[in-house]
Amino acid sequence: MKGLELSRGYYEEFGRDMIKDLFPELEGFIACGLVGEGSECFGFDDEISTDHDFEPGFCLFIPDGEDKVDSRTEFRLERAYASLPKEYRGYKRQRLSPVGGNRRGVIRIGDFYKKFTGRPDGLKTLGDWLGIEEHFLASATNGEIFRDDSGVFSAIRRSIAYYPSDVFKKKLAGSLLMMAQAGQYNYTRCIKHGETGAAQLAANLFVTHAMHAVFLLNRRYMPYYKWSFRALRGLEKFPQFAETFEYLLTTDNGAENAETKGFVIEDIAGMIIGELQEQGLTGAVCGDLEKHAYSVNDGIADPGLRNEHILLTVKSAV
After folding, report:
1. pLDDT of the chain along its 318 residues, tens only?
2. Exposure of 143 by Cβ count < 10 A (0-12 exposed, 13-18 middle, 19+ buried)?
3. pTM for the predicted model, two decimal places
4. 287 Cβ partners below 8 Å, 6+ apart?
5. Which H, E and C letters describe the chain, residue by residue?
6. 289-298 and 255-278 are packed helices; what angle lies between their axes, rounded to 10 degrees?
């Protein structure tokens, strides 16, 4: 059974009535669902996932600010949640940690969003957006919300559903430039120098940034690296790249493979360029990803962001 299905069933059978019967004052304010950390929040869980942090449970998001739930009610809610059945559909609940850090149970809305975005009310400024890592945004917007009585939790969730246009373009431009440098330029040069280890590092960098570009072109946040291939295979555009990327990452750089890998890199670059043109993101007409990177950057509306270094958002700019 998938974790999201397990969580929804547990909430519907036990959580809904618990709130209605014991906390009627919270109806109109509370939100419940399964969002955040864990493969089950992405729908990526399997049999192996059940060996840790897998249980019947859900999140109860309570408000801050004007509608803030007092600490006594919060404590009562935590106790009531902890008292729900310890086993459901063959899965046992985990013991709550006395020092916090649990992924389920009672969570203040502001605390949840601050953990993943650095702010209790989501991302507001260009600096906020540029300063947050993508996998945190993937975790903040995944899963399902089963109810949101006030709509506050979901409103913040919608506001960070995807990057603003200029941030999207800056990130895409950086990824394209790294693809050009690592794949179209440095991979073949390393091979010619006989540096097969360095060539593999170049191939790895190319794959890393090509994967980021693919997620960007799908308007989807890329999750934490261990789920990146699983998520890639579910994308609308270029899911077939999962197999191609694995080939680039796992094959050696002997003469025969190196030539093939060079052709594969160029094929990927060509398909990415075609998609850039299809989406109207580039005005360049060539097979050089570097020129397309600068063309995408030129399309940024905010002059300050446009004039920042093209690799502003790229961490592995080597």
Report:
1. 788 999 999 999 999 999 999 999 999 999 999 999 989 999 998 776 655 556 799 999 999 877 788 999 999 999 999 999 999 988 888 765 543 446 899 999 999 999 999 999 999 999 999 989 999 999 999 999 999 999 999 999 999 999 999 999 999 999 999 999 999 999 999 999 999 999 999 999 999 999 999 999 999 999 999 999 999 999 999 999 999 999 999 999 999 899 999 999 999 999 999 999 999 999 999 999 999 999 999 999 999 999 999 999 997 544
2. buried
3. 0.92
4. 266, 269, 270, 273
5. CCHHHHHHHHHHHHHHHHHHHHCHHHCCCCEEEECCCCHHHHCCCCHHHHHCCCCCCCEEEECCHHHCCCHHHHHHHHHHHHCCCCEECCEECCCCCCCCCCCCEEEEHHHHHHHHHCCCCCCCCHHHHHCCCHHHHHHHCCCEEEEECCCHHHHHHHHCCCCCHHHHHHHHHHHHHHHHHHHHHHHHHHHHCCCHHHHHHHHHHHHHHHHHHHHHHCCCCCCCHHHHHHHHCCCCCCCCHHHHHHHHHHCCCCHHHHHHHHHHHHHHHHHHHHHHHHCCCCCCCCCCHHHHHHHHHHCCCCHHHHHCCCCCCCCCCC
6. 30
Give the phi and the psi of residue 31 in degrees, each rounded to 5: -125, 145
**Side chain identity, residue 157:** R
